[in-house]
Amino acid sequence: MLNWGIMSAGGIAYVFCNAMRFTDSGQILAVASRTPSRMERLVNDFGIPRRYTSYEALLEDEEIDAIYIATIHPLHAEWAIKGAEAGKHILVEKPISMNYAEAAAMVEAARENDVFLMEAFMYRCHPQVQRVVQLIQEGAIGDIQVVRATFGTRVGFNPQSRIYNHEMGGGGILDLGCYTASVVRLIAGAAEGKLFLHPTVIKATGKVGPTGVDHVAVATLKFENEVIADIVAAVEGNVGRGVSIYGSEGVISIPNPWLPSSPCRGAKEPLPLDTVFPSSTIIVQSHGSGESSEIEVPVDRDLFTYEADTVANYIDARQAPAMSWDDTLSNMRLLDTWREEVGVVH
Ligand SMILES: NC(=O)c1ccc[n+]([C@@H]2O[C@H](COP(=O)([O-])OP(=O)(O)OC[C@H]3O[C@@H](n4cnc5c(N)ncnc54)[C@H](OP(=O)(O)O)[C@@H]3O)[C@@H](O)[C@H]2O)c1
Fold first, then answer.
1. If you measure from the C-alpha of residue 11 to the centroid of ligand 1, how many angstroms do you get, rounded to a whole number?
2. How confident is the model over 149-158, as pLDDT tens digits?
3. How many CB atoms lie within 10 A of CB 135?
4. 148 lies in some domain
5. Which atom of ligand 1 is nearest to the CA of 178?
6. Cα 105–188–96 angle (5° rounding)?
7. Which strand ranges, in their side-by-side order, compose the sheet holding 89-93?
8. What is the DSSP letter of 174?
9. Which of 8, 178, 197 is nearest to 96 (CA)?
10. Are 158 and 250 in the same domain?
11. Which atom of ligand 1 is nearest the CA belonging to 38?
């Protein structure tokens, strides 16, 4: 059983602590936070035995095996590298860093210090996405031609919030585009029996707001196997959330690609241990017959529990196929180009 240390006590840290209630692959031993009120809530709600008022102190706790870095993005690289140097295994929130160069330094630190490192793309740990990859590889919709992925949300403009503040790593490409970029690379790769492909062509545009970060951004990609993708990320408006994969014989749609089966997301208190987790649905439509069928993907835990279990299952391999180091580096390289095309510099 892994002893986890939680770094920061913000919104997603609460979700992760809640999800840890539904596994015995690990337990939360400590939390470190600079904010007393947030720390109190986490410690009290989840009965966390140790608390630290600095992130350094968490890394000095020799009984912690793995840390979950849930700070704002600009702090991910610094603390992942310090964590690796302290010999801790690392799960770090998405986007893994602000740019490719930071991500490369993090991977190097994990390699040098022989620790696990994974970017926390929870949706990649859920059985739904694994079923989609399987359908593609079985030829369920023939040759893959076009993939569309959107992730939009409406966050009221506040120049001080982490979503819109430049210094805090704001912008939709980093916050939500990282998901859409990762899924289309996954699907293009799945068509070739690979974990991912990197696009050979990237064209993009977007709307940049007064704080210098993107509010709405779109990119069109082409891969070496002629798969074309378009990806959308928006923090200013709900432009939809979904993934559609168009093949020569049919279409696969994922109505809830990013947050399936997660009562923990949005819960304001610890969930009861008898919580039932909702299955997710994939829709497969045939061009020929016009018929469509729904595939139910059963689950037995929360989305974020799958993520924590993925870390435990792959810890000895130091990286997990749900988001390998090369996959993360490809994603960050794509996000760098996307932001550059849109005119956002971090
Ligand atoms: N996988 C997902 O579904 C998901 C969902 C939401 C967010 N995320 C990712 O998780 C990370 C945190 O997002 P969140 O929504 O949890 O944000 P949040 O609620 O604002 O929490 C961010 C935390 O960052 C820490 N922090 C350290 N230095 C800071 C500074 N200078 N200003 C503000 N905060 C600072 C704070 O921790 P303390 O004060 O407690 O030390 C704060 O609690 C982001 O990288 C985001 O992309 C992932």
1. 7
2. 999 999 999 9
3. 19
4. yes
5. 47
6. 25
7. 50-52, 26-32, 2-7, 66-69, 89-93, 117-120
8. I
9. 178
10. yes
11. 40
Q: Say how many Å lie between the CA of residue 193 and the centre of ligand 1.
A: 35
Integer Cα distance of 25 and 313 in angstroms: 8
Query: Is the pTM above the cut of 0.85?
Result: yes
- On whether the CB atoms of residues 18 and 270 are closer than 8 A, the answer is yes
Q: Which of 232, 321, 243, 231 is nearest to 282 (CA)?
A: 243
Task: Give the pair of three-digit tokens for residue 194.
Answer: 């690979």
For tokens 């998405």, the residue is 94
DSSP line for 102-168: HHHHHHHHHHHHT--EEEE-GGGGSHHHHHHHHHHHTTTTSSEEEEEEEEEEE----TTSTTT-TTT
Instruction: Express each pLDDT in 82-113 by its tens digit.
Output: 999 999 999 999 999 999 999 999 999 999 99
Say yes or no: CB of residue 8 within 6 Å of ligand 1. yes
Domain that holds residue 211: 123-303+320-342
d(CA 339, CA 330): 14
Domain contains 313:
no
First to last CA, the chain: 38
